[in-house]
Amino acid sequence: MFKSIKSNLIKYWHLALFLAISTVCYISVLIPPRFFWPAVFTSYAIPVVLILNMVILIIVPIFRLKLMLYPIVSLLLGLPFLLVTISFKSERNTKDSDLSILSFNAKYFRKLKTYDEFSVPMIRWLADDTSDIKCLQEYSTNSMYPEIDVTKQVKAHGYHSFVYRANIKDADHNPGMAIFTKYNILDSGLILNNQYSINEIMYVDIQKKSDTIRIYNVHLESMGLDIHGYKYFNRYEAKLKRLGSRLKWGAEQRSTQIYKLIEHTAQSPYPYIICGDFNDTPYSYNYFKLKRYFNNAFEEAGNGFGFTFNSLLFFLRIDHQFYSEQIEPLDFHVDRSMKISDHFPTRGIYRIKN
Length: 354
What we know:
The chain has eleven helices and 14 strands.
């Protein structure tokens, strides 16, 4: 028997090798970036590995039926990644008393493909949105000009606010993050406490009738995928090196930030919902770290692929909503009607369990 297996491995070494490569890619999500940074790049290959295994599964029966065993084993090992890639959930009945949440990286409310001019339609869209909670990343507001005084416009619709202002360039427009809520804010705070960065984790405790709920708004370190940011590097190799360095550094920073988030939620006396721009795909150590502690709204109440990036790399899902065990997700979807930012907004509807 063992002699037969050895003979097949030698004869079909290319399939055996690809199975081994697939397994290495899957295992990479278990390795913290700060311990072994090449695992960051290996994990990015997981979607490609899954697709290739599906193609192999279709092709190999033409030559020999038993060769299907190789891609089948690989796909079984990759089942956790298939489950986070696509979701098919039936619609659930919602009530007016359920909690609706909008999470949106607003790109400082600038016009499409530019940071030089404000988008008044985007600001009006946000102000008119009726969600109970609005979590904004890359937020911006300026009280000197009514058309771009976002805070005032949203609060005029009956919202309470907690706004974080980063101490960086463009300070006149108060870049940072914000949470708006129709409910009273009992407490609020910051977790990372780095006033010189737009990347922060903020939270508010809100009172909804007899329930107190904690809402986290998250904007983790960037993936560094802005190609235009490398225009000053003359050589192609230099640009790739810089991109690789940014991807490595960003993954390490997000790993540390996620650890602080997990620590903070462990001390929360209330049920909580976590929304934001995590800058991590479902094929990463950081995402699976989050899954070990929190439930994901897309996986439990979403449909389709849930892509959230409105740019060339449209197939990325880097904006997520997570929640604690005391929360029940009723619906999650990506709002593709707002196309001005480089992120699509995500919407979730939740209910507090009895």
